Amino acid sequence: MLENDAFKSDMTALTNSKELPDIYNTWGGGVLEQQVDAGLVEDITDSVEPWVDTLVHASRTAYEFDGKMYADTFGIGAVGFWYDKAPFKKAGDDSPPTTWADFLDMVKKLKDAGYTPIAPADKEKWPGMRNWAYLATRIADVEGP
User: Fold this and answer.
1) Integer Cα distance of 73 and 54 in angstroms
2) 34 φ/ψ sector (left φ>0, alpha ψ -120 to 50, else beta)
3) pTM for this one?
């Protein structure tokens, strides 16, 4: 197993040699598009057709060019939130929200009760960006609202 930067270097060298592995991890978007344009990646549209529509649209668009799929998302990330039950109870509800509308309603209730609804504790920076990106792509998709 290679660290991220070493893997990128190896993949760049393999791409330049026009000899990519049969199966490999890749970044979607521009990196994959360059591999597609160079004729190094197989069109897998027919293979994924039975189930590709079950994916969140934003999770597959980075692997799709000109209506054809060239890679598949294989990882699923979950973003969890921990919560203090006491403020929820004081705000009028002792259970966590289960829908986006319920979440927005709870944020308002917590604010009205004098609480700061969300504190990201974002010392490392990337978790906050990741959480925002996950939320944005699920609410607005990659094309926007």
Assistant:
1) 12
2) alpha
3) 0.55
